[in-house]
Write a structure and sequence with these properties.
By secondary structure, this protein is α+β, with helices and mostly antiparallel strands. It is built from four helices and twelve strands; from the N terminus they run H-E-E-E-E-E-H-E-E-H-E-E-E-E-H-E. The strands form three sheets. Strands 5-6-7-11-10-9-8 form a seven-stranded antiparallel sheet, sandwiched between helices. Strands 3-4-12 form a three-stranded antiparallel sheet. A hairpin with a 6-residue loop joins strand 6 and strand 7. Helix 1 packs across helix 3. It is globular.
Length: 216
């Protein structure tokens, strides 16, 4: 691999590991991918979900395709509680999927797949380093696991809080992200909610993200 190719590959790995890890990609001190926080429902009217009810989960199975690698699956709140929505980010990434809580648009689950060159098995997410560099004390890592060896891929999870500008004021967003890296693809599932909502919805969102399975 030539030096330019190596640099390009490293930059791509940084983008995948940091930007796709969360709904926010870091540019300066604010999220570049903030459109995820503002996406509207696919339909003109999204009937509200039962308020105060615990999420009911169902398995989402994503079939193999040009944009979704060899396919993957994870649990997500069913259509009673969450609605699939579109955003500029999801339109730019045809294989990505974005769901939002019908009652609270700041509660969301996002998934995507990107091709990587990981033939040597050296891939490792750079989320912690990237977020520490760009957010400083506004980034707090709560927990991480991995790499856990699975059949055909390595798996990492990260739970963290980022204080960022949202709706014209700084607020804390709580995230949990999972990465499944094979030799040729990185599968990412990310869930988020405002910090004040995490106690109520965090356990279910954590279950969803940690259920990620790549069909590698």
């Amino acid at each position: 691999m030539s030096m330019p190719d190596a640099a390009s590959d490293m930059n791509r790995r940084d983008v995948v590991a940091a930007a796709l890890a969360a709904a926010v990609a870091v540019v300066g001190s604010s999220p570049a991918n903030a459109d995820m926080l503002k996406a509207a429902c696919t339909y003109a009217d999204c009937p509200g979900a039962p308020k105060g009810a615990a999420y009911e989960l169902e398995l989402l199975e994503v079939k193999p395709s040009k944009f979704t690698g060899k396919g993957y699956s994870y649990s997500r709140p069913n259509d009673t509680y969450f609605k699939r929505v579109t955003s500029p980010s999801s339109l730019r990434n045809p294989g990505s999927i974005l769901f939002r809580d019908k009652n609270d648009a700041d509660i969301a689950i996002f998934s995507d797949v990107q091709e990587i060159n990981n033939k040597d098995g050296s891939f490792s997410p750079t989320l912690v380093d990237s977020y520490t560099k760009n957010f400083g004390e506004k980034f707090k890592l709560i927990a991480q696991t991995g790499p856990a060896k699975q059949a055909g891929y390595d798996l990492w999870t990260y739970e963290y809080v980022v204080e960022t500008e949202l709706g014209g004021k700084y607020q804390k967003l709580h995230f949990i992200s999972a990465f499944a890296a094979s030799q040729t693809n990185i599968y990412v599932v990310n869930a988020q909610a405002k910090e004040e909502s995490w106690a109520a919805v965090g356990p279910a969102l954590t279950t969803c993200v940690k259920s990620l399975k790549a069909q590698e």
